[in-house]
Q: What sequence folds into this?
């Protein structure tokens, strides 16, 4: 509920309990609605902080897979509608992210940034 109200939200619970999927579902809902109306802006809508070890699994299972499935569904329901969803950008920023990659993120701002606690220092 807080995420839908655009309030900063800290979600803390045991591994595997669904917090990542819950957080991404709320933000994807907003991004998809904005993209469908051509209202998506060149700004960060969500920063997701996760330990590096869990990062790849979280992204694939709880963000990229649902986003890909939503694009496929949108294409079946309304031909060409998935093109607007292609505008939703996701980026990973860790301690290993190069200066060039960081600069690129400033030009084409990711809507969702996945990062690690170390990268916030």
A:
């Amino acid at each position: 509920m807080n995420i839908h109200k655009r309030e900063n939200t800290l979600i803390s619970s045991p591994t595997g309990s669904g917090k990542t999927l819950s957080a991404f579902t709320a933000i994807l809902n907003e991004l998809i609605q904005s993209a469908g109306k051509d209202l998506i802006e060149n700004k960060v809508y969500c920063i997701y902080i996760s330990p590096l070890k869990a990062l790849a699994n979280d992204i694939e299972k709880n963000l990229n897979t649902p986003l890909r499935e939503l694009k496929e569904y949108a294409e079946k329901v309304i031909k060409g509608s998935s093109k607007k969803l292609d505008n939703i950008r996701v980026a990973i920023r860790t301690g290993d992210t190069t200066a060039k990659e960081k600069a690129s993120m400033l030009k084409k701002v990711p809507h969702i940034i996945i990062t690690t606690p170390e990268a916030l220092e």
Helices lie at 19-36, 52-77, 82-85, 99-107. The beta strands are 46-49, 90-93, 112-115. The chain has a mean pLDDT of 82. Residues 89 and 110 are 5 Å apart (CA to CA).
